[in-house]
Design brief:
The chain has about 180 residues and is α+β, with helices and mostly antiparallel strands. Helices cover about 35% and strands about 25% of the residues. The protein has one domain.
Length: about 180
């Protein structure tokens, strides 16, 4: 299955979304994004479920804002099972874009680009876990590095979803 199917399903839902109707938001161009999968329980166990979040970034063309963008709250989510990725559930949370704050943007360093460019492998690895491997393993280091980098560039959204994945975020924060 994978991200391609999730992207198709989310794109269908995105077509139904109506940007927030307000005088100051009519010049914001919104684009749909999908988060990496976040575990609903941690550490992983056989049959673990994971959640992808559909959210949006908005470029404000009226203010000439170039070093930050609007971030919308998740408007849909997709839940998948580690054992049966085909059995996924799409849940629409809203039919509107709801701005939750500004996210600064900056170029990626070469090492950050390398880490984030390995998204598919790291995400597949996470979905395959049925127990937590040794903390010193290279796979765990890659997993932590990937999610820490993703969160650093998506802090507004990460803080918004953190309450639903407390144990995973606590694990990420460990040295």
């Amino acid at each position: 299955m994978g991200r391609d199917i999730i992207k198709i399903l989310i794109d269908r839902e995105w077509a139904k979304i109506k940007p927030e109707i307000s005088i100051d938001m009519d010049k914001v161009l919104w684009s749909c994004f999908i988060s990496p999968p976040f575990p609903l329980n941690w550490p992983p166990v056989p049959g673990s479920r994971f959640r992808y979040y559909a959210y949006a970034y908005g470029n404000d063309i009226s203010r000439g804002l170039r070093d930050a963008c609007h971030v919308a709250a998740p408007w849909a989510l997709v839940e998948v099972s580690a054992e049966d990725e085909e059995a996924l559930t799409v849940v629409s949370l809203s039919n509107q874009v709801k701005d939750i704050g500004f996210q600064g943007v900056e170029p990626l360093s070469e090492s950050e680009f390398t880490i984030l460019n390995k998204a598919n492998g790291v995400e597949k690895y996470l979905l395959s876990l049925q127990a937590l491997p040794e903390e010193e393993s290279i796979e765990i280091k890659k997993l932590r590095d990937y999610y820490r980098n993703w969160c650093s560039y998506n802090g507004v959204l990460a803080n918004n979803i953190k309450p639903y994945h407390k144990r995973f975020f606590r694990w990420l924060d460990r040295p």
